Amino acid sequence: MTTSINTQGGVTRLATAIGGAVAALFLAVFAAVLMPAAAHADPNVIQYSADQNTWGGMDQIPALQGQLIPGGEATSKFWAKNTTATGGTLQVYLGNWTKNAPDVQAYVRAEINDATGQVVDLVQGVAAPGTELKSIHLAPGESAKVLLVVGMPATAGNESQNASINPDFALDFELDPAAATTTTAVTGPATATTGVAVDLTATVTPAEATGTVQFKDGTTNLGGPVTVTNGTATLSHTFTTQGARSITAVYSGAAGFATSTSQAFTVTVGAPAPGQSSVTLTAPATAVAAAGVQLKAVVAPATATGTVQFKEGTKNIGVPMPIVNGVVEVTNIFPNPGQFVLTAVYSGDSANAAATSAPQTITITAIPDPGNTGSANGSMDMVGGIFGSS
After folding, report:
1. Global confidence as pTM
2. Which of 44, 133, 316, 367 is 20 to 30 Å apart from 67, CA to CA?
3. Out of 3.40.1440.10, 2.30.42.10, 2.60.40.10, 3.40.1400.10, which CATH number does the structure's domain 183-270 have?
4. Which pLDDT does position 371 carry in this prediction?
5. What is the residue-wise DSSP string for 86-136?
């Protein structure tokens, strides 16, 4: 789709007339203002606006404003928007321009989004129609600011007076070729551990596809877009929370390649594998029933957290006790005599495995009978026997 923007005029009117009365060689005034004609473009393909509020056809492109004098420029600023569902290239180039005097000096150029293209001198036979001034690729719905410029060099002399020029701009919007269908698949480890980096890999088919892949955990982006190289993109990611994570890869698409999104891939994230730990039980070998017995458990490493449960066989002694600086101490009373097998069971924590101490046997003896005085009475009887009676 190609359209032209040119000045109004004809045999009876040259709105682009450059010139005026000659007062003196260095005092010549070039006061004519350039006016673009109402050209036609398909509003369903590209739309234009002078203020980014009102959009329509090329009638929305404002007239060139300014005086075309030595060192001066006449400009027209507008926005062009791609209203299609396909990307395309907006091109500004030189149309079928004319001038009525061979020595008149003028140039044209175009800016898009404040980036200027080449400056083209309007010299007969050199500035050929179709010369590109500037172009830009517009994604669907994307717009660009365009500035058309007709200028006269500051060095333009007397020969440029009383002349006319029709600079003629042309616009072309070429839709991108039909995009090839792509597929994207994401792979990674079935399981991962919090705090440990894993690689997530997206494979885009066909392998010639360029662009980027955005990895996602549900609706949350994982990092930024990753460039596709030879059909693959890999992200090293560290999960911070446990649970089943639904990972997808979204391919951005590129010139000639359509976008695509992978099926979800589940990574089950668990806690770090616990480290080794140990617990040592200390208790007296013997004790008296009903007397307080000190039980002590020492957990290694000393930085371990959690609790220790003392046990007598399979029976709990009290409740789990928190570890303080690697140590737990309790006082327990065994009410009955006998032999008892004791252990200390460490609960474990996120960094340390659970552990059980080696069993230790404690012998509990009966409480001595405070009423048993047979030894003293025997001594008295012996004394009596020795001394006899009088």
Report:
1. 0.44
2. 133
3. 2.60.40.10
4. 62
5. S-EEEEEEE-S-EESSTT---EEEEEETTEE---EE--TTTS-TT-EEEEE
